[in-house]
Amino acid sequence: MSEAEIKSLEAQFDAKIANDQKIEPKDWMPEKYRKTHIRQISQHAHSEIVGMLPEGNWITRAPSLRRKAALLAKVQDEAGHGLYLYSACETLGITREELYDQLHSGAAKYSSIFNYPTLTWADMGAIGWLVDGAAIINQVPLCSTSYGPYARAMVRVCKEESFHQRQGYEIMLSLCNGTDEQKEMAQDALNRWWWPSLMMLGPEDKDSVHTEQSMKWKLKRKTNDELRQQFIDQTVPQADILGLTIPDPDLKWNDEKGTYDFGAINWDEFWQVVKGHGPLNKKRLDDRRNAWNEGKWVRDAAMAYAEKQAQRKTEAATAV
Amino acid sequence: MMKPIKELNPQFLESKENKEHLISYLLGVADNYLILAQRLGELCGHGPNLEPDIAITNISLDLLGQVRSFYQYVAQLKGDKSTEDDIAFLRKEREYRSVLLVQQPNTDFGYVIVRQFFFDVYNKMFLNALQQSADETLRALAFKGIKEASYHERFSGDWLKRLGDGTVESKQRVQQAVNDLWVFTDELFHSSKADDAMITAGVAPDMLQLREYYYEKVENLLTEATLEIPEVPYFQKGGKEGLHSEYMGYILSEMQYMQRAYPNSRW
Ligand SMILES: [Fe+2]
Ligand SMILES: [Fe+2]
Ligand SMILES: [Fe+2]
């Protein structure tokens, strides 16, 4: 292709996005667009399936049958999200196996929040309320992102994430209406999950690398700092209803701005975890790798069986 | 819904003994679902691939749904303040009536599938027959469960064929699971005194009559999966009478942890 041809394709492509038209897998797209989308969508998919682990940790210990069933269903939803997102990513010309390899080798990232441990039942409440809550804030804008398969996957995902958030909040509510011990458990969970949840919305705008390009492609609609502010403003009144204290002595309502002011985030901790040195980075990846490696003989068997079946079919057909 | 084989005498449950037998019978059914759901719950997020992971979680959820309905019925029969959760979480080990099969560990995916298949074939036959129970609530529960149970049996049966007729390694692994778990199948057909009373009353199907059919079905599928049918001189039993495997205490201590550590709390 000549340079002029590429220029014109690029112009058409940019115009399409500017007009809110979707880019579909068969459409021409700049290589950078493809790469960026593979990175972001797979990162998101990995987050869904690594995210199954901290909550999966409490399935066998859930305190009631109703909670056990709800938690199982939630973790299963996350597997479903992983599945849609891997499928969306595969439309960009990469296989699920390749994506897993990237995860297992540590080359691909996933949301850092899942590298924190779930220590009590209240963490199931706090994760639903805060982590799914922050995820929604990140993800709702993606329902109208430019890449069609991603946008459509996100519509489904977001619906379920809102349900998860309500379910998490409801766990917190039960605890806060419960015994003193239960209330303490809820407060302790909030104390541990609050700051990592704020970090989940990404580094501060001044340290964020991809923002401008992402805005143009509608991978982002608001900056990290805007999203974080939105999350805080939405969550503080919810904590008030629970009767819990946000673990930030500097948090206070700013009448002039009409938002909450909040204290400094420990970005050293954020980078420590992102770079692989959080409390459970190693365990989470080991668990994923083990599941994959231990499942190899099963996947091989399924493949061999399918091949034999196909062969039997052709043999039967030619025998006639 | 199907018609009962027998009408239940309206005074039947006014007898304290009948009621106790029915409760004991119901626990014998539902405890299997509970312990198996618990075992499957351990696997969530650790499957060999996303699809079977999701499917196994689904089975666990279906079983939990059945557990809740059965325990709610038990709670209603007891007529005291007990709830489904008291029944699920606050009994002593000896009071659980689950068979040894469902307690067996998730040694590998082969064991998971074989355990499931051995149970599913039984469960589908059981729910099928239970649809003609003289007890209306049980007829409804059976009707509700049968579709799920058929799906479970298809899932585990299909995987058994894949593993048996897959690779050399998968065949060897799944044959090992079949050999190890075979000894626990016969207990599914044991009936206690309470069970016998319920069979006589037409509340419970007589599963012993279906034993031969069960082994025929299982053996046919094993053969189709190119696997060998084990021959054992003795079968294992005990769970139904409250004499469990060494695994059971660990299953319960994990499952009951919250209820024991924080008694009298609402979640
Ligand atoms: Fe999700
Ligand atoms: Fe998500
Ligand atoms: Fe979620």
Query: What share of the residues of chain B does DSSP label as strand, in percent?
Result: under 5%
Order of helices and strands of chain B: HHHHHHHHHHH
Ligand inventory = fe (ii) ion
What share of the residues of chain B lie within helices? 55-70%
Please give the domain count of chain B.
1
Largest contact between protein chains?
A-B, 51 and 48 residues
By DSSP (H or I, 4+ residues per run), the number of helices of chain A equals 13
Q: What is the CATH architecture annotation of chain B?
A: Up-down Bundle
The sequence of SSEs of chain A as H and E is: HHHHHHHHHHEEHHH
CATH domain topology of chain B: Ferritin
Counting helices, strands and paired strands, the structural category of chain B is mainly alpha
Radius of gyration of chain A: 22 Å
Strands of chain B, total number: 0
Describe the structure.
The complex is a heterodimer of chains A (320) and B (267). Chain A is mainly alpha-helical and 320 residues long. In chain A, 68% of the residues lie in helices and 2% in strands. Chain A has 13 helices and 2 strands; from the N terminus they run ααααααααααββααα. In chain A, helix 6 (122-139) runs antiparallel to helix 7 (148-176), helix 6 (122-139) packs parallel to helix 8 and helix 6 packs antiparallel against helix 10 (224-242). Chain B has a single domain, classed as Ferritin, core subunit, four-helix bundle (Ferritin, Up-down Bundle), CATH 1.20.1260.10. The mean pLDDT of chain B is 97. Chain B is built from 11 helices and no strands. Chain B has 267 residues and is mainly alpha-helical. At the A-B interface, helix 3, helix 4, helix 7, helix 12 and helix 13 of A face helix 2, helix 3, helix 6, helix 7 and helix 11 of B. One fe (ii) ion binds at residues 47-48, 81, 135, 139, 157, 161 of chain A.
